[in-house]
Amino acid sequence: MSEVQFKTHGELVRSRQPGHGMPGELFGRQDVFETDVDVFFHKHWILVGVTADVPEPGDVSTVDIGKASIIIVRDDDGNIRTYRNVCRHRGARLKEAGKSTVGMLVCPYHQWTYDLDGSLRHATHMGKDFDPTCRSLIPVHTRIVGTHIFVCLGENPPEDIGKLEETMAQRFAPYDLKNTKIAFEQEIIENGNWKLVMENNRECYHCQATHPELTASFLPEDFGFCPENLSEESLRALEEYKVRNAACQASWEQDGFASANVEWLDEDAVTQFRTQQLVIAGNGESQTISTKVASTRLFGNLQRRDLGDTHLWTHNSWTHVMSDHAVISYIIPLASDKTLVRSKWLVHADAVEGVDYNISDLTEVWVATNNQDKHLVEITHEGTQDPAYSPGMFSPFTETYVDQFSRWYAARLSAHGI
């Protein structure tokens, strides 16, 4: 009985056949998982929350990412700051994961006390030569884009976050996303590898059969399709789709809404992102079952309801912004076979539940879709760990972004010498 040859992480990545899925060991092995967290969640920019997580001075949101933990806090001047969740005395965690409100940040171990600007204000029994100015909390590299809080835990954060910031600041500006509140939150733990969660999000090959709530607001041509041997009826539908898209794009641009697709996804990208403004089907207003707005209190000072879906991808998040509400989701890997998916539904800060919106209409599409995706990720993860698994070929028409994600993943590992 011959021994199975052990392949390194890099060898596994390089063994992937072009246009095919990744080897199963890349989803299941502990050493691969640990390297992924270090490279893709500690050295890259990641989404960790929204400004509405900390709406008032003293509000705190603590987020754990692998062995690391960060504190997001709004200070007394209304600014958002982020720190490593490590006391500068003997390293105790200052806050548990989750949200709270504080006057100052007090270590539960020896009561070292920090101001919201990170400075150490109180430490007893340290002697006259102790210099508290050298013991401030460790800040984290942070960029706020619209309402999105991006952080990088690495010492040298990738500079191309500027491309995302420049592109999305302009697109988010009309929605005034900082003037929003969280109407609903959902946390799901999917029993699957984080890469499978992102692969599933990068394609809609599966959508028509598995997401009836979501597809109520999507035009079917946006799922991707094989252009070969289309029927006359399908060809007519395709032409109508092109005409409708062009008309909507022209109308949005005329009113000052940037709508052209922007992609920064290929192997030379570090901070990977993609944005587009999708036309919404039916009544054309929002991602709801009725395709009408779920909140009659629109974002900012918007007058138009039919602004489609401004969609943003990064390597750990996906965002949908409509005229009336936004759905923002991001992932945090917990284990090789467990991924936390956090989703937040935002509405205008002055919108009133039961008057301007109700939770059911607001959430029914993406609550259902997230639960359906949870099942799909889990059965796929199980299958990739089966001895019978052999990576299959991607559809060149509906899974091009999954293939691209695999190439980017390989390129980023190579850049780190893996």
TrEMBL record:
It comes from the Bacteria. InterPro entries: Rieske_2Fe-2S, Rieske_2Fe-2S_sf, Ring_hydroxy_dOase_asu_C_dom, Rng_hydr_dOase-A. SUPFAM superfamilies: Bet v1-like, ISP domain. Its cofactor is Fe cation. Keywords: 2Fe-2S, Dioxygenase, Iron, Iron-sulfur, Metal-binding, Oxidoreductase. Residues 1-20 are annotated as: Disordered. The keyword DNA damage does not apply. Residues 47-151 form the Rieske domain. GO terms for molecular function: 2 iron, 2 sulfur cluster binding; dioxygenase activity; iron ion binding. Residues 1-14 have a biased composition (Basic and acidic residues). It holds the Pfam family Rieske. CDD domains: RHO_alpha_C_GbcA-like, Rieske_RO_Alpha_N. Belongs to the bacterial ring-hydroxylating dioxygenase alpha subunit family. This is Aromatic ring-hydroxylating dioxygenase subunit alpha.
